[in-house]
Design brief:
Length: 112
């Protein structure tokens, strides 16, 4: 979670993109501030795929007003991402469980 101050935001995000494999990167920023940061990130060579994965403005849109509500919306978004990843892993494990020896096989057509 990054709360930008307008100084060193882009180099910090570049460092995160290069050295850390994170499932959630959120930036607390207005749309205008995030758009400016995205341009800076592109200029310093941050991959487009990383930029697209950043959640900005961070948090689910629940019309938050109070700081406590903003914090809850961010935590809710983190939980959503975490559960989605767990569900994907469960689905992958379940699909492998139905294959012999846990290995995916391809159907073979018999020609008569």
């Amino acid at each position: 979670m990054l709360v930008p101050r307008g100084v060193n935001d882009s180099p910090l995000l570049k460092h995160i993109s290069e050295y850390h494999k994170l499932n959630y990167v959120g930036v607390v920023a207005s749309e205008n501030r995030w758009n400016a940061t995205k341009k800076e990130l592109e200029q310093i060579g941050v991959s487009k795929s990383f930029i697209q994965r950043v959640r900005a403005p961070a948090g689910l849109d629940i019309n938050s007003v109070l700081l406590e509500e903003i914090a809850i919306s961010i935590l809710a978004e983190i939980i959503e991402v975490r559960r989605r990843i767990e569900f994907q892993r469960f689905e992958e494990a379940r699909s492998l469980a139905h294959e012999p020896f846990g290995v995916k096989t391809q159907a073979v057509e018999k020609r008569i």
